Amino acid sequence: MDKKAVESIIESRFRKKVQRSAKVRNAYLLVHSDKLNIHLNLAEGKTGNVDANPNQPLHLASVGKLFTATITGILHDRGELSFDDKISKYLNSELMDQLHVYKGKDYSDEIKISHLLKQTSGLYDVFYKLYKKLLNEPQVISPRDAVLWGKQNLKPVAEPGKKHFYTDTNYYLLGLIIENVTGKPYHEVLHEFIFNPLGMKNAYMHGFSHPAVPSVFPAARLYIKNVDLFTVEGLAHIDYAGGGVVAPAEEFLLFMKALLNHQLVKKETLNRMLNDDIPMGFPTPGFNYGYSIWKFKTIPVLLPEKLTCWGCVGATGAFMFYHPKTESTIIGSFNDFSFRSKALQFMVGGVVKTLLKFKQ
Questions:
Q1: How far apart are CA 275 and CA 283, in angstroms?
Q2: Is residue 174 scored above 80 in pLDDT?
Q3: N or C: which end of the chain has fewer CB within 10 A?
Q4: What is the DSSP string of 217-261?
């Protein structure tokens, strides 16, 4: 199958997928491979009355966690912190006091930065409970207050290092650690360490910063159960370092290229981010999790090695993955919570399998 046929099939499958879904209002897909000489940047649907455009800024939800992990990696490379440091070195007593009490034992001082990164701290998740709270009582809850609320109202699920449990709480704490180490707000660090050096001119942190160059296109809207997340007062503050990055797909590609080419973190640091991992278990048994990085597990017949990818996922049907076999980066979002699983199925079945059929 030649380049033109591959691109045509991917585009057709993407547009049909969107058009056949009653819940998806707008969707975006970028596929790039220097090896295959393929570059597609697609948009389908509308933002309000405006036709979807491939250059619209996109909020990729928890894909933003990879930016947080990368900044942590940069600080690790600079010697300003270590992945193996205990978090108590960087967080004050208000946060640390009985942060993690599990079955009557206080494990707070045993939590390491690496535990936060790969979601093995054993801490509770506050995001969805606070999200529901915001829907009923609009307010601004700071990331610090979100952690304190969790301490008072929720219980840890495991000892540190023993179990993977996906939670935004870990990434709030990483954001606060980054602020402590740099002496700057997290959003300023995002711009200084990543957006500015990479020329991500339209990129910003939702609710906290502005792009260097405002886009001429509106940011694409994203939804959880028919709720436009941009209309939820206070959401940005419980998104924070657990998501929050908004940029056009082409600028997310700049980030992935820089990460892959070791322009952001050293090769050995990226290798650790990838390979210091743990099985995610239910409800995502097909994945291992590194430092914010989802890795497909090879499953004979069902998911052979040639299909495996690594990257990051957002609950609104967002994804940003690298496929080593074809050296392809695949970025996109269906911008609806109903596609949180379907998006990855489409990425593998609709994109990766098609790329593997390419023949020059």
A1: 21
A2: yes
A3: C
A4: SPPPP-EETTEEGGGSTTHHHHHGGGS-EEE-HHHHHHHHHHHHT
The two most distant CA atoms of the chain are separated, in Å, by 63
Give me the residues paired with residue 331 across strands: 30, 320
Alpha-helix runs per DSSP H in 154-213: 168-182, 186-190, 196-198
Give the contacts of 95 (CB within 8 A, at least 6 positions apart): 144, 147, 148, 173, 176
- Residue 283: per-residue pLDDT: 79
Helix axes 143-153, 168-182, angle to 10 degrees: 140
Is the pLDDT score of 291 beyond 80? yes
From 1, 26, 41, select the one nearest 335 (Cα to Cα): 26
Domains and CATH numbers, the chain: 3-66+207-355 (3.40.710.10), 80-182 (no CATH)
Which residue is associated with the tokens 């295959």? 36
The pTM score is 0.97
Q: Judging by DSSP bridges, how do beta strands 245-247 and 204-205 pair with one another?
A: antiparallel
Average pLDDT of every residue of the chain = 96
State residue 259's pLDDT score.
99
Name the nearest CA neighbour of 14 among 333, 341, 358: 333
